[in-house]
Structures are given as structure tokens and as C-alpha cells.
Amino acid sequence: MSVRSDRSLWAGVLLGVGASAFADEAVFHRLLRWHRFYDESASGIGLVSDGLFHAFGWFATVFGLAAVADAARRGVLRGRVLGGGVLLGGGAFQLYDGIVHHKLLRLHQSRYGVDISPYDWTWNAVAALMLVAGCWLLLPALRRPGGAS
Amino acid sequence: MGTGHQAGPAQWAAAIAMAGAVAAYLAAAARLRRRGDAWPWLRDLSFTTGGTAVATAAAAQLPGGQFTSHMLQHLLVGMAGPLLLVLARPVTLVLRVLPPGRTRRTLLAVVQSRLAAVLVCPPVAALIDFGGLWMMYRTPLLAATHDRPWVHALLHLRVFAAGMLFTTALCRLDPMRHRYSLALRAGTLVVASAAHAVLAKSLWASPPPGLVFPAADLRTGALLMYYGGDLVEVGLALVIVLGWYAETGRSLSRERRRMDAVPG
After folding, report:
1. pLDDT of residue B226
2. What is the DSSP track for A16-84?
3. How many CB atoms lie within 10 A of CB B250?
4. Which residue of A has its CA nearest to B248?
5. Is residue B2 part of a domain?
6. Binding-site residues on chain B for chain A (CB distance < 8 A)
């Protein structure tokens, strides 16, 4: 893939990670209150990983927006590649959150007081779908190494 | 904890010193404008707001339970205040307004000294700021200052000074000996923000050693630390990223001019 498409792709990946982290924080922690701020079973390494992704999510949002503006002023912003990047970044973050944070490190569960397996499966299936959709959007750009579209 | 409840002489001294700094800043900016220099009004506003925030946090009764009001004070003195003060580029202003002479030379020598360069190296500044923060909340230090208002005031002075150092290091707005890269400043911001978030979550579960707070107060304080910290860290990210955007834009237009100059 050429450098041209890289700018759109990486701006998209950053925005995707940021949007996914923000949705997790705003919707599942604050609005629905399905996730807990702190779970007694959370390990130290879990809290560190959570803290790093939380912090990186904010920075990725801000830097991703500036990267989109930068690609636009260079005239190399491509919507399809940007969209693919957003889905890849968002899906990867959600899959990591769903498998590593929720399950392996037991940071907190996807929901409390209910049978959580449908929630976990939906969470991770949505993440996998986002990754597949992202790859599908990026296919034409990957096939043409010149990156012209 | 004896803070934010009854302002003693130490708290009033801090508030008066901050008010003095604001007055000096406004006078210096006014002098620059009188002689015809451009100095954006937004910087006056930023410095005044930051100074007011720090002075208020030092001397006024802040709302909320004991731990919550302590955390609000910490956010204003150590994070939000320093960001607003640093955005106003106070060192640049002083260097511009001072006439050539001994004082100006000394200040310039201090700002561009090797020691200053080491202190504003982002990881060093972050270690001083957030290492001190962990020490304050995860050792009996805070409990030990309980009945000693002057020692407690010193602790807050340290929070303020370390916050100023960290913000200066990340924003890179005032002149310095060495210009640290975007990657180093961004990476430091992410790691330091993570340390802040982890500490906030751990405070939600257990208070600083030797201190007891009602559970609701402790949790509100921890949430305030977590999300309040986010707010200031997004502000820092904006300063770093907008700086990168402007710099990239300048080199982009230089490149374009060069391309135009080459025939064919």
C-alpha cells in the first residue's frame, strides 16, 4: 500500500480506536452502567492495561482528527480507506477489550446480575464483524499497490 | 485533612502570590501592546483564569465531602490551573518585556540551562509529577500532614510546581534549550495519563493509608480525579497535536514553494 493511502488508513485506525474507547466509556460505563468503574476481581495488570487504553483512546481521538485534516490539506484523503481504518481500529480495540480486559484480566464484566454469555458473544461478534467489514473496505486499495482509486 | 475548609495564613499567602502574578502578567502584556507589539488577548484571559482557579482552590471553601473537595483542589492546582497558565506563555512575555540587561540575561540563562533542559525532558517531568502524586496518595505522607497546615501547604505547592513543570514539558510553548519530539511528548502524555487513571481507580477502592473517608465521598473524589484528569489530558493532547498540525503545515508550504520554484 502506498504512502498516500497510509495517511487515510492511519488517521482512520486512530479515530476508530478513539471512537470505540469513547463509546465504551460513555455508553457502557456512564449511560447504561453495565460496566463497573472498579471490580474487586480486577488484577493490577488489568488496571494498568485499562489505564493505558483509556489514555490512548483520548489521544487517538484528538490525533486522528488532526491526521484527517492533514490528509485533507495534502489532498490524499480517501473516504473508503479512512472508513476501513476506522472499522479496523474500532474492531481491534473492542475485541481486545472484550477478550483481554473482560475475560482474561477480569477487569470488569460486560454486564452484572444477568447471564453474561450472550452479552460477551454479541460484544466480540460485533468486534469481529467490524474487522471483517474494515478489511472488505480496504480490499480495492490493497489490490492496487499504486493506491489510485 | 484540613484543606479547603479553614484557609490559614499559608493558603492566603498562596492566593495573594497568585493574584500578584496575574496583576504582573496583565501589566506586562499591557506594556507590550503600548509599545506596539502584538500579544493575543486570549493569553491574558488564559493566565487570569488559571491564576484565579489556583487562588480559589488555595483559599476558598470548595464544595463536596472532604476527599472530594481535596480532589477538586488537586485538579485545579496541579492540572487545570497549570495548563491555563502555561498556555499564556509567561516566560516568553517576561523575556519580551524585560529591557536588555542583567535580569534578562540571567532569566534567559536559567531557562536555557542544562538543568532546565533535563527537568523539562518529558519523562523526567512526568516522573517528578506523577511519582510525587503516587507517593502522596499511596504512602502515609498525606496522613502525616493532617495537623500541620504549613507542611500541607508545602505539599500543595509541590503539586502546583510539578504540574507546571509537566505542562511546560509537554506543551513546549515557551523557549527552551532543547525541543523534544512529538513522539516523546505524546508517549509521555499517554503513559502519565494512564498512571493518573490507575491511581484514581485504586483510590476508589481504598483511601490513602492512614486516612478514613465515607465511601460515597471517596468514590465521588476518585471519579472526579478520573474524569477531571481526562478533561485536562484532552486539553494537553490538543495543545500537542495542534502544535504538530501547525508545524507540519509550515513545512508543507515550504515544500510546495520549493516545488513551484523548480521549473518543469
Report:
1. 93
2. HHHHHHHHIIIIIIIIS--S-S--TT--HHHHHHHHHHHHHHHHHHHHHHHHHHHHHHTT---HHHHHH
3. 10
4. A70
5. no
6. 186, 189-198, 201-202, 204-205, 222-223, 226, 230, 233-234, 237-238, 241-242, 244-245, 248-249, 252
* pLDDT band at A49; cut points 50, 70, 90: confident
Q: At B41, phi and psi to the nearest 5?
A: -65, -30
Instruction: Identify the CA nearest to B84 among candidates B158, B167, B156, B159.
Output: B167
Give the residue among B57, B79, B52 at the shortest CA–CA distance from B69: B57
| Assigned domain for B203 exists | yes
Task: Provide the angle, in degrees to the nearest 10, between the axes of the packed helices B90-97 and B102-111.
Answer: 150
Is residue B234 within 8 A of residue B83, CB to CB? The reply is no
Q: What is the pTM of this model?
A: 0.90
Going by pLDDT thresholds of 50, 70 and 90, the confidence category of residue A146 is: low
B1 domain residue, yes or no: no
A2 dihedral zone (left: phi>0; alpha: psi -120 to 50; beta): beta
Contacts (Cβ under 8 Å, ≥6 apart) of B85: B46, B47, B50, B51, B54, B164, B167
Give the residue ranges of chain B where pLDDT is below 70: 1-6, 263-264
Q: What is the pLDDT of residue B137?
A: 92
Domain coverage including residue B145: 9-261
Mutation target among B245, B250, B254, B259 for the A interface, most CBs of A within 10 A: B245
The per-residue pLDDT for A142 is: 75
Q: How many domains does chain B have?
A: 1
**CA proximity to A83, closest of A2, A142, A11, A24:** A11
**B75: helix, strand or coil:** helix
pLDDT value for B3 = 44
The whole-angstrom separation of Cα B15 and Cα A142 is 60
- Closest Cα to residue A53, out of B194, B64, B259? B194
Residue B161 lies in a domain: yes
Interface mutation vs chain B, best among A7, A38, A43, A105, most B CBs within 10 Å: A38
* Closest-CA residue to A140 (of A51, A80, A82): A80
